[in-house]
Automatic annotation (TrEMBL):
Modification 4-aspartylphosphate occurs at: D299
The name this protein goes by in its record: diguanylate cyclase
Lineage per the UniProt record: Bacteria, Pseudomonadati, Pseudomonadota, Gammaproteobacteria, Pseudomonadales
Localization: Cell inner membrane
Catalytic activity: 2 GTP = 3',3'-c-di-GMP + 2 diphosphate
UniProt source species: Aquipseudomonas guryensis
């Protein structure tokens, strides 16, 4: 006899799971706050306490994944304590990886933990639309993109939800529950809040200026009219909530003095910055290719190769033209400092330097460099890497795969019948579909995977440490989910599919040959009926 599942027991398990996830969010919030400050005993104690709470809840409610993560985080924090409260690059990297995994644990039933990678948007999006069924459908669509959304059916339900928990964002119909009531409810929700909630308004019909003005005064940051689709909504929510994984800055320190380099490392590590030290400047180019730093700190006077000479060598390589170089030296002759900066440096700091000064300079320079690089190497429509940079990332991944003896797969995706979409629905709809797939890939693939827009409706994905069979399984799941997204349109709603070809690194293949094999597999998928994933056969 098969024992029947007890519905009340199942609800209780779900309730307990939510308690664990809530505690996990507390850990993440403390961690993310730490990224903006220097490490200190008070923050350390708060993070330790929050993680102990997570471990207790996870053990009590039998949440195995959270037990494992909390234990691993606890081990890292113990290592920091054993290191007299000091961070180092290995611990920063390990903690960051664990926190990223923790941010992906709020998955829906049926998702596979190791294959689904969601951004750390930890609160739900509230949907307050007149048509409750439409709100529920939109909530389901948002879930395809990895967001939790809660459809609300009345003004009382909205007020109750706001009392219980503040959302990540609110989508409010102007006439929700009654004419003009949505504006009033939204205004109420923002009252007394130091930091206003991201608020988006919606109206079926185009509205007059007084209504739009009232929406602005209520705190509205976006106003949708007419059709409302999940991809457009999530695009705005991402911008308004700044949803992104924190990635520590990486600094390469080149100094022939081990003692000085160690001191610089400790100062930067204390602020959560990952460092790598090189005492042999002649090895700089190989280290740059492997480490890919956001910034370089360079000593002025070193045997065999001085700082300005090395700066010139680095600047000869187009890939490192925009990487900031900061000279850190005891040299106090202003003319010599200016001469050094004219050879490729961006800043000159004189030893001894106050830790806060060094940290602030590195953070500011690295932040600007990242922003500049993202504009140089990314596609303007989707924010994905452009064709040229995708191939460069493939070459880098191929080098590391060979060195470490790990698998590497390269996938090419193409939206099916895309010309028909443009011809039937217009190019704006075509752009929406392209942006939708780009966003879907970013949220469903790992942070270590590199996603590029290869051109037009074609995409490419570099999957390190992944064999072809695993890549096919992951991308086939994405293919199925993507096909379920509905785009409201006339004369009828639209859904799209894509085909995919995958090649795995074998033998002495170079990047061009690997991409050619993926393209051949994509051709097989296209001519085999489309809406499928094919692996290149040797």
């Amino acid at each position: 006899m098969i024992e029947q599942e007890d519905p009340s027991r199942d609800r209780l398990k779900q309730h307990f799971a939510k308690r664990v996830i809530h505690q996990a969010r507390q850990v993440l919030e403390v961690w993310q706050r730490l990224q903006q400050a220097e490490w200190n005993a008070i923050d350390m104690a708060e993070l330790v306490e929050a993680n102990l709470g997570l471990l207790r809840y996870a053990e009590r409610f039998e949440q195995a994944v959270h037990v494992q993560l909390a234990a691993s985080i606890g081990n890292c924090l113990s290592a920091v304590e054993a290191n007299r409260g000091r961070l180092n690059s290995q611990l920063i990297t390990e903690l960051n990886q664990l926190m990223q995994r923790l941010s992906r644990t709020g998955l829906r039933h049926g998702d596979q933990f190791e294959q689904t990678f969601l951004p750390p948007l930890r609160k739900p999006v509230y949907l307050a639309l007149q048509d409750f069924e439409r709100a529920e459908r939109l909530a389901q669509q948002l879930e395809f993109f990895g967001l939790t959304a809660q459809a609300l059916d009345s003004a009382n339900a909205f007020r109750a939800a706001m009392t219980e928990r503040h959302p990540a964002a609110i989508l409010m119909e102007v006439d929700f529950a009654a004419p003009g009531l949505g504006l009033q409810l939204a205004s109420e929700a923002q009252q007394g809040l130091e930091q206003k909630l991201p608020l988006l308004f919606f109206s079926h019909e185009d509205t007059d200026t007084p209504t739009r003005l009232a929406a602005v005064r209520a705190g509205g940051q976006e106003f949708f009219t007419g059709n409302l689709d999940a991809s457009s909504l999530i695009e705005r929510i991402e911008v308004l909530t700044h949803v992104s994984q924190y990635d520590p800055y990486k600094v390469l320190i080149i100094d022939d003095s081990r003692a000085q380099a160690t001191h610089t490392e400790r100062v930067l590590n204390s602020a959560g910055i990952v460092t790598r030290t090189l005492t042999e400047p002649i090895q700089a180019m190989a280290e740059l290719a492997d480490f890919q730093p956001d910034l370089i700190i360079l000593d002025m006077y070193m045997p065999d190769c001085n700082g300005p000479e090395l700066a010139k060598v680095i600047r000869h390589n187009d890939r490192y033209v925009s990487v900031p170089i900061i000279f850190l030296s005891a040299e106090d002759d202003l003319d010599k400092q200016l001469d050094a900066m004219s050879e490729g440096g961006d800043d000159f700091l004189t030893k001894p330097i106050k830790p806060r000064h060094l940290i602030a300079t590195v953070r500011n320079r690295a932040s600007r460099a990242r922003n500049l690089k993202s504009r140089m190497v990314r596609d303007s429509l989707t924010g994905l890497y452009n064709h040229t940079h995708t191939l460069q990332l493939l070459e880098d991944a191929r080098f590391r795969a060979r060195r470490d003896g790990q698998p590497l797969s390269f996938a090419m995706l193409d939206i099916d019948h895309f010309k028909r979409v443009n011809d039937t629905y217009g190019h704006p709809m075509g752009d929406r579909v392209i942006k939708s797939l780009a966003l879907f890939l970013k949220q469903r693939l790992r942070k270590t995977d590199h996603i590029g827009r290869y051109g037009g409706e074609e995409f490419a994905v570099v999957l390190p440490d992944t064999d072809a069979a695993t890549a096919a399984k992951v991308l086939d799941e994405i293919r199925q989910r993507f096909s379920e997204i509905i785009y409201p349109a006339q004369p009828q709603d639209l859904s799209c599919t894509f085909s995919c070809g995958i090649a795995e690194l074998r033998g002495e293949l170079d990047g061009k040959e690997l991409s050619k094999q993926a393209d051949e597999a994509l051709y097989v998928a296209k001519h085999g009926g489309r809406n499928r994933v094919e692996i290149h056969l040797d």
